[in-house]
Amino acid sequence: STQSTWRAVFGRMGFSDQEIVALLGAHSLGRCHEQYSGYWGPWTRAPTTFSNMYFTELLENKWTLKQWDGPDQFEDPTGDLMMLPADMALLWDKTFRQWVETYAQDEPRFFADFAKAYQKLEELGCKL
Q1: Which residue from 15, 28, 78 is spatially nearest to 58, judged by alpha carbons?
Q2: pTM strictly above 0.70
Q3: pLDDT tens across 3-22, in order?
Q4: Could you give phi then psi for residue 75, rounded to 5 degrees?
Q5: Buried/exposed code over 49-76 (b: 16+ C-beta within 10 A; e: otherwise)
Q6: What is the distance between the alpha carbons of residues 20 and 3, in angstroms, rounded to a whole number?
Q7: 27 in helix, strand or coil?
Q8: Spatial contact of 3 and 92, defined as CB atoms under 8 Å apart
Q9: Between the N and C ends of the chain, which has fewer C-beta atoms within 10 Å?
Q10: Helical residues (DSSP H) of 1-128, grouped into ranges
């Protein structure tokens, strides 16, 4: 499952579930470009703003599998936003979802936890 992949990849570097979810909050920035990844669209309506909007969008929208010729991805009811299967896995796993809910409700907490997790990632020598 995607959840076990997240845990295997980040776990071997010493990251907890909380830190994994915090780092994935970086999806509040940017978008997918079909020509590079096969996926298309932004995660949030403000893709140039670092915020907890990724978590609020994830929780507050009804996500459905997009009907198209590309790889599996999910879209919101407007078709403007997307989530990858890996993003949806944060909702499907009880422990990950708990952190999604926490960060959706508490942006300062997300910022603080993201900063700590990102610093840890940098100190490990991982480049994003």
Answers
A1: 28
A2: yes
A3: 888 899 999 999 999 999 99
A4: -130, 155
A5: eeebbbbbbbeeeebeebeeeeeebbbb
A6: 10
A7: helix
A8: yes
A9: C
A10: 2-11, 17-24, 34-37, 53-60, 85-92, 94-105, 107-123
